[in-house]
Every structure is written in C-alpha cells, then in structure tokens.
UniProtKB/TrEMBL annotation:
InterPro entries: Calycin (IPR012674), Lipocalin_ApoD (IPR022271), Lipocalin_bac (IPR002446), Lipocalin_CS (IPR022272), Lipocln_cytosolic_FA-bd_dom (IPR000566). This is Lipocalin/cytosolic fatty-acid binding domain-containing protein. Coiled coil: none annotated. Belongs to the calycin superfamily. Lipocalin family. Residues 35-169 form the Lipocalin/cytosolic fatty-acid binding domain. It comes from Tetranychus urticae. GO terms for cellular component: cytoplasm. One of its GO terms (biological process) is lipid metabolic process.
Amino acid sequence: MKSIILISALIGCCFAATPKIGKCPTPGDEKTDFEVSRYLGRWYEIKRSDTPSEKGVKCSTANYSLRSDGKINVTNSGVNSEGDNVVVYLTASIVNPDQPNFLSVEIFPGAPTASYWVIKTDYETYSSLISCVQITADMYSLSGWILSRTPTLDVALVDELTKLLETKGVTELLTNDRTGCTN
C-alpha cells in the first residue's frame, strides 16, 4: 500500500501543479458535443500550469491522433533548457460516450490515470483544457492549458480562456516561451 501511495505521489509531483486537499473535480457539461475527430492534429501550447514535468520546456506542442482501437495517442513535444528535444507519449481514452470531452490519460502503463477534459474549443483556433491527478485519497493536483492551432493566439481570447480556467480552479498560468521555435 505504501508503494502505491509513493508512486501516486511521485506521479503527482512530476506531472501536476501544486497539490490541493480533496478530490479531483468532475467535469461539467462544458463541451458535451465534443467531436474527437475535429480535435485531432497539432496544437501549440500558449499557456500552462507550472508543472515540474514541463519545467524549463519551451516551444511546446501537442499532437493528437486516433488509434485503430478508438484510443487517442497524445504526443507532447518541446525543447528543454539545454536545447534538447523532449517528447512524452500518452494514451487517452474517452471515459463516458455521453461526455466525450472527458478523457482518462495513461501517463505510463500501470500508473494511476489522470483525468483530462476539454472545457472549450472551436477546433480551428483555440482550446482550453484541464487535467487532474488524484495523488492520494484526499489530495489532488489540477493543471490547465490553453492551446492554439497556430503558435500565437489573440490576447483577448487568451484572457477570456484564462478567466474560464480560473473559474474551474486553475490559476497562475505561465506563458509558453516560443523564442527561437522552429515548430
């Protein structure tokens, strides 16, 4: 049991923002008409929570592709502070067909999954999403992202999406550094 708690705590530390007391929030009905097929493809990270796994990473992108078994491959890539390319591969699954915007993300085989849900998107320009990791029975960590189909996004829209994420409990977003990015 101690091993499971330790592994959960390590996952929370590495992949999530500041831990909070309680349980992961449940998704609302923000995007129940979500269409996975329209969401697939490349997204550029505009803003994100301060997560240890992304410390010092810039030029971040996420690429979503559909697998033959219906799961979604998520390939997150960026450049670390030494200038090396970093890539993280994740697998996402729709939890409930009635809430297709709510996914379960496998960080690595055998690890506890993280919840992941798209709060708002127009598929062609922007997306805001939240991820939550239940670290222990009474501790969770909530993270958020603002993504764009292009390397930049209108400031007014970024402000609107930032405020939306704040209403869901995600605060203190960092702007992704795109200086010298080639992607």
